[in-house]
Amino acid sequence: MGSHFARKGGIAVLRFAKKALQEGLPIKVKIISSLRLGDGVPTDVRDKSYYDRDLKLLDIENVSYYNQLPNQKVIELLHRSHFQIIPSLQDIAAFSVVEGLSTATPSIGSNIGAIPEWITDNSNGYIIDLPVDENQMWKGWKEQNQLSDKVHIFEN
């Protein structure tokens, strides 16, 4: 969940869905996002075409994509989910984690911003450790944003 798709970890989730499908795992991924990407999002490569190959994964059979949903529908999806994934690269509060916890849905999230304040590792979810700076943000985001549009640092 989240409009800044790559910043909130959407690319990682799509790649996870692809891997689960390839491995024959019975995992279905539901994505809610307006897919805002590229220039104007602090963690993103400015050229949106950088994400084209990954965005094609929105159409694979184990992914359901929703552009926007009313909050009640989001809560209903969370109620029916086994867990939510938010491998965010930059996030201050990650309120979607709180929404998930309100439905007793555990979260798998990065150690960014306040996410570790909501998720207790191995209790109500799991924390993915990323290298962070003094502000508890992913160390690579400033370099990523300054990359040439032709550079691809995260290949599939």
TrEMBL record:
Domain (Glycosyl transferase family) ranges: 48-131
Cited SUPFAM superfamilies: UDP-Glycosyltransferase/glycogen phosphorylase
InterPro entries listed in its UniProt record: Glyco_trans_1 (IPR001296)
UniProt KW keywords: Glycosyltransferase, Transferase
Pfam families xrefs: Glycos_transf_1
Enzyme kind, highest EC tier: transferase
GO molecular function: glycosyltransferase activity
EC numbers: 2.4.-.-
Source organism, top-level taxon: Bacteria
Official protein name in the record: Glycosyltransferase
